[in-house]
Amino acid sequence: MTERPAQRTPNRQLAALIAEAGFSNAGLARRVDQLGLEHGLDLRYDKTSVTRWLRGQQPRGTTPALIAEVFTRRLGRRLTAQDLGLDACAPVYAGLEFAGSPEEAVDIVGGLWRKDSGSHAELRKIAFTPAGLVVPSRDWLIGRADEKVARTEVPVRIPAQGRPATPRTSLPPGPSRRRPPAERGPGQRVTGGDLAALRSVGELFRTLDDRYGGGHARQALVRYLEHEVEPMLRGTYGEQAGRRLFAAAADLTRLAGWTSYDIAAHGLAQRYFVQALRLSQAAADRSYGSYVLVTMSRQAVYLGHGREAVQLARVAQQGVGTSAPPVVQTLLHAAEARAHGLLGEVRACTAALVRAERSLGAARPGDEVPHWARFFDEAQLADEFGHCHRDLQQFRAAAQHAERSLQLRAPAYARSRLFCRVVLATARLGLGELDQACQLGAEAAGQAAEMRSVRAAEYVRDFERRLEPYRDAAPVRGYRDKVAALG
């Protein structure tokens, strides 16, 4: 790794932080190398490298951000490269920052929308990092709603030559584009009609995602966020409208993350979830923040990070206490149960499922339920039970709950029904009912072929891996023939 020529001024800031953290030079170098591996970087720093940094030499590339992240993890507070006396560079966790103000939150999430709506395919290849879950969830738990989100006027930047600059737009750098008369520009007042439209758009994209998978309309959603939602956030609005606007932006951003997760763009999805969490804080909507954390927990379960998933679900529970409606409490306990199930923790999983069942039982007709939690009904709870029992290899119980979920679940939730059908096929396989398992698996494979959902395809592949010990059996050969006919 090539370094810049040494500077004469010793780096006292770095020396002080090394002492505070209790690192040796070799220990710091080792941690930087390990963090680099998380990001696909083959770094070869040693104690001599750290000695050079202390003498004033500046590391190149993203290394200053990696060093800052090492200290952030160790000391439990967010540190930048400048805090260490190093040159500024792009954060190693760009997009995972938990912004200090609503304005900064809009800047961060707006940058994500613009990059994602363009031709930045590399953004969808960013890796998921479990370490990136710690600081945002902690900051949300101990944080409070922003005191003020209203924007009564839009600041105008004055360039050096003294002429007012064009207000910042939501368009990415490049050739200027004329805006049609009906298209929103920054600075316009946000109306009640705007807020109602955001809600309707969210329902539309949620329906498309449930029926056809995240890949069908994800890009259209991201472009809507860029060209409609960001200008609204940079518009003018009072406190009440501002809270509703940030709530709608949080919901749409979480949905953009959910659809990214469904197409296996896991690092990008993680960033959307973190920014949705921050927007929910600006909205002063603690319950929705807990729902975002549950979404993050589900992604962690899917990727095999059970311990992190448990922690996220528990942070969500701590963050709302007993104030959330029973249906929301059910959702939180079910997420914890799924994480314990992944880890094979039978008692903890069972206890969380019991809490979820009791919470749903406490719900009464006429209870006020947030629109985003209305999907969680008896069918969804049965689905959660089925997944948990499958993971615990309690196949008879898994089959019973999966069958109940399929009986109750509306056809509009096509992808969820597909997942549940695979859970049932897996349970039947575990019970030795090979014919039924293969029939259910073939039905699920046919549904997956009609969707743009990597998760749906992965559920089918997981079932096929479980079929391997029986690959020469007639039902399995028949299954393979049916799948091959799908093309």
From TrEMBL:
Residues 157-192 are annotated as: Disordered. It comes from the Bacteria. This is Regulator. It comes from Streptomyces olivaceus.
